Amino acid sequence: MDYKRLRKVFEYFFTWLALYACSLIFSIIPLKQLYSIAGFLGSFFFRITGKHRKTALNSLEIAFGNEKNAFQRGEIAHGCFTNLTKSVLELISLTNGWPALRKIQVNLVNREVLDKALEKKKGIILVSAHFGNFPLAIGKLLQNGYG
User: How do the domains of the chain map onto residue ranges?
Assistant: First the structure.
């Protein structure tokens, strides 16, 4: 096996091992602390991932032009890193069957409309505002017997 392939195998293995260890650790941490950790890790990743930070800031400069100054664009990019980290930690915890995330904070409104549409057995399309983590909404639907 050549060096590059061997290195890639080790990288994949240690990445898997790190994610597995994190999922075990995150499964015992309360939700409030998990979000604090996400804030810290999001800030950490924002500072150390120069290439991705630069891409985010350049994209925001294109999107906002002179409408937002460099500080404001930095705040937006930092928030994106933090929210992405929060979503990843929620997903890791959810896949581990974490009890706090089993009580997902998603409200199902007009369930009777959903039930009536499902009775027709033709499939449905759900429309939602983009707030939070979509897989959590899917988890809530599954938790309530849809699936």
Answer: 3-98, 104-147
